User: What shape does this take?
Amino acid sequence: MGRQDLRVKGLGLGARFALSMTLALTLVMASAGYWIYTSANNLVSQAREQALVEGLSMSANAGEYTQEKMGWVVSSSPRIEAVQVTFASGKRAVRYEHDVGGRTHYWFVPEEDATVGSQLATVIGIIVFLVVLVGAGVSLWVAGQVVGPLRRVIDDLRQIARGDLGHRTRAQGGGEIELLARSIDRMSGDLAAAREAELELSMRERELELAAGVREALMPFATPDVPGYDLRAAHLPSGELLGDFHHFVSLDDGRVGVLCCDVSGTGVPAALVGATARAYLAAELERGVELALAFRRVNARLHEDVRRGMYVTALYALIDPALGSAQVVCAGHKVPLLHYVASEHKLRKVHPGGIALGFDKGPVFDRSLEVLDIDLAVGDRLVLSSQGPLQVVDASGDELGEAAWYQAVGRGAKSPTAAFLRSLKQLVTDFADEEPFPKDISILTVLREE
Assistant: This one.
């Protein structure tokens, strides 16, 4: 998955909380202030009107009362003196006296009613309660805006923890919530990729183990010891699970066969086809019957057993030490048998006709199959190989190819067999330059020494 931008976009949780609370509380306090101002103004107006009415009534109908001098309100001219009075009815007031031109004028002002203060306190208490209530509501709303997405993120994490690494978060919102959601998606994507890589590695390791086991089962257990002849083989694995194999066949009459086969496809199917073909070929060729008959029988059985599209190519040389000759059969093998003729210092290609085993039920295979006879003089060498050496690629992707391979075989054919095989292995290794071999490499050689 693509790398996501893990920077916070939009307002963060702290900024959103502060902004929401500020706006809400500003609205609430503005409303509360207006309510307090209006309520207080109304209460004061009502109290003032009530005091005025009661004062006028007291001034007009003073009746009996007791008084207690309070002192001068204004001692300079004009002088105003305040006197605390209590009427017979129990009402209390302040009488203000004012001397003007030798005459005393007075008026009564009733004491402030305590209910005004209590009413104002009640209004303020109600407003404070409402402010707290609205603040709590705003806090719960903001908390819901935060907790809701977080709960969805927790549910997403539980889903991922159950193994659903393809699950993606459903949380919506800016700031840290979005950042957390993207981080979780990135984490789950990385975990999915890691798990896939781990499974692939595990499968690869099992496949390599299976390839090693199959390769060991397909390779010959021993190389026949034939007087006057040097038979040897070299094998370079590719690391892939393939069905390619080579084999030596020893007959009771002293003849010995050298077999090299390529199998189509890769993986377990190719390995199974290779094992099946090896068993069929070994069983038929060890019977010592005519080569053409043996190959026809193997083709018929293999055609019945392998699925459509699978096939096996084979190149077989049956050496007769007593006669100093060999019979060669090719069933669709791409690389011909190479015969180094020591007397001529030349390399000849021996490539009989034939199609791959398993392709055809029988008629086409039987008609196309050829068996060629060649003589082996002292110093002559036969070389059989799979397609592996020709398909080796270098770092730029170029294949070694037939020409370079034939030239290398021709140059080293006169050398002792150990040095000859060593030179060919060095050729493909140097050409690949640490690049993996695309296919297994099998090289078999027969040198007539005397």
Summary: The CA atoms of residues 216 and 245 lie 10 Å apart. The chain is about 45% helix and 20% strand. The helical segments are 13-60, 114-161, 175-218, 267-285, 291-305, 363-368, 401-412, 417-432. The mean pLDDT is 82.
